[in-house]
Amino acid sequence: MNDTYVSDNTIFKVNNLFNSGSIVKLLEKILLHDIIFPNTSYKFYAFTGYDGRSIMPVLQQDRISDAHPANQEMIDTYMTALGFSKQSTTGKYANGSFIVWDIVPRNVLVDEDGDLYVVDAEIKVI
Fold it and tell me: What is the tens place of the pLDDT at every residue in 83-106?
């Protein structure tokens, strides 16, 4: 994601597709995210861009209020509870269907009740 905008209850993420390569690959990634992490699901909101030069999808997520970055031990425990095995690289996990990575404190929030929220992840189907 490239630009993030925050309102009271919502986060808007504008993606320039540079890392995704295409809208199709981005939407596939979002669908996988929503399957694995439904409590931080994305919604397609709109397109933006520069006239005649680019198109950028705008995605929407609910804002997790009163939260802070989780530590890696909390993340490891959470991912194990979801059925993933920790891999040799920090923040990388796998199960029989998916490999997920970049599951590190900057991308995982914990609220005052101790609930974890993965707000951004890289995901690949095995």
Answer: 999 999 999 999 999 999 999 999
Q: Encoding tokens for residue 64?
A: 């997790």
Place of tokens 């919502």: 10
Number of H helices, E strands in the chain: 2, 11
- Residue whose tokens read 């992490």: 37
pTM here is 0.88
Structure tokens at 85: 């095995």
Give CA–CA dist 61/78, Å, rounded.
20
Phi, psi of 69 (to 5 degrees): -60, 135
Q: pLDDT for 18-71, tens place per residue?
A: 777 788 888 999 999 999 999 999 999 999 988 877 888 999 999 998 999 999
